Amino acid sequence: MEEPKKPDPEEPKTLDPAAFETAMRLIRRRRKYFFATIISYMPVMWLAKMISPTLRSMAIAFGLWVVILFIAALYSALARCPRCGQYFHMHGMSLMYLRRCLHCQLHITADKAG
C-alpha cells in the first residue's frame, strides 16, 4: 500500500487572486494596529497625566498600554503568509516587522503590484 503524499512546506500554495488580496489586506491591517498602538504611547501618557497627575494613574495607564501592545503584537504576529502558509512576521521565536515574509520573501504590497 502506498502512503499518502505529505504536502511540502517549501512548495508555494496556489490561491485565487481574491483570497490572496484579502489575506494581504489582513496582514497590512494587523500591522497598522500594532504600529498605531506604538505611536499612541505618548498621547496616552500625556492624557493620563492631564486627567490625574499621580504616579499611580500613570502606572495604570502604562500597564493598560502594555497589555494592548502585547495583544496587538500577538494579533499581528499570527498572520499567515498567503503564499507559503508560514507566519509572515515570525521566524522561529524571532518577531520582526519587515516588509517581506520571513520565509518566502513575499512583499507586503505584492497584491498591489501589476
Task: Give your account of this protein's structure.
The protein has a domain at 17-95. Strand 1 and strand 2 (94-95) form a beta hairpin. The chain has a two-stranded antiparallel ribbon with strand order 1-2. With 114 residues, it is mainly alpha-helical. The model has no long low-confidence stretch (mean pLDDT 87). The longest helix is centred in the first third of the chain and has 23 residues, at 17-39. 11% of the residues are buried. The chain is elongated. Helix content is 50%, strand content 4%.
Could you give a short description of this structure?
With 114 residues, the chain is mostly helical. It has a domain at 17-95. Helices cover 50% and strands 4% of the residues.
Give the SSE order as H and E letters: HHHEE
Oligomer: single chain
Radius of gyration: 19 Å
Let me know the average pLDDT: 87
Number of helices: 3
Largest sheet: 2 strands, antiparallel
The proportion of residues in beta strands is under 5%
The backbone outline, from C-alpha atoms, is: elongated
Determine the fraction of residues in helical runs and give it as a percent range: 40-55%
Q: Low-confidence parts lasting 5 or more residues at pLDDT below 50?
A: none
Structural class comes to mainly alpha
Number of beta strands: 2
| Arrangement of strands in the largest sheet | 1-2
Distance between the termini: 46 Å
